[in-house]
Specification:
Radius of gyration: 33 Å
Number of helices: 3
Oligomer: single chain
Strand content: 25-35%
Largest sheet: 4 strands, antiparallel
Helix content: 10-25%
Structural class: alpha+beta
């Protein structure tokens, strides 16, 4: 083969084929500087943080009210003590109604705010219990008092209409 004009470079015939198909340019390797990389990282984490803050605010403002008015029972059928279980807002959504001394009738979704297990009324202890992870809720307010749940049970708004008790809506 013919020798090239520049000293130290191999003749054309000795250049490996991969170098022609996949040329590697060292100069282009430095295109993203450390400063640019840091800027990209800061902007990305700032965007993620902002998105998280926005979602948290929307979650706090979420006052979703679920359900249409639905008849639960006639007032005569409501027990003085103990629970009355019913379905609300949907036919598959379980709820519990209780007559709390000094407070009156209260109703809550039976879906635990921890991992959605079914909460039930424990008469001996006068509390709402989630058996999955021993979550305990106060009967009068639905607030968590023990175990992993951090949020109160969704409350069901009640209304007396004539001789019947109606569920109006569910509030988180």
């Amino acid at each position: 083969g013919a020798m090239s004009d520049q000293p130290g470079t191999p003749p054309e015939s000795q250049v490996p084929a991969w170098r022609e198909e996949f040329p590697y340019h060292r100069e282009a390797d430095q295109l993203v500087s450390r400063r640019e990389l840091l800027r990209i990282a800061v902007l990305s984490s700032g965007a993620l943080f902002s998105g998280t803050v926005i979602l948290a605010i929307l979650g706090a403002l979420d006052d979703r009210r679920r359900g249409e008015p639905k008849r639960i029972a006639s007032l005569a059928d409501i027990p003085d003590e103990g629970p009355l279980y019913f379905n609300y807002p949907g036919d598959d959504d379980q709820a519990v109604l209780l007559n709390v001394p000094g407070r009156g009738l209260v109703a809550y979704s039976q879906k635990c705010t921890h991992l959605s297990c079914a909460v039930y009324y424990e008469e001996e202890e006068n509390r709402l219990l989630c058996p999955c992870h021993d979550g305990v809720f106060e009967v009068a307010s639905g607030e968590p008092v023990a175990g992993p749940p951090q949020r109160r049970l969704p409350r069901i708004v009640l209304e007396r209409r004539g001789s019947a008790l109606w569920a109006i809506e569910e509030r988180p």
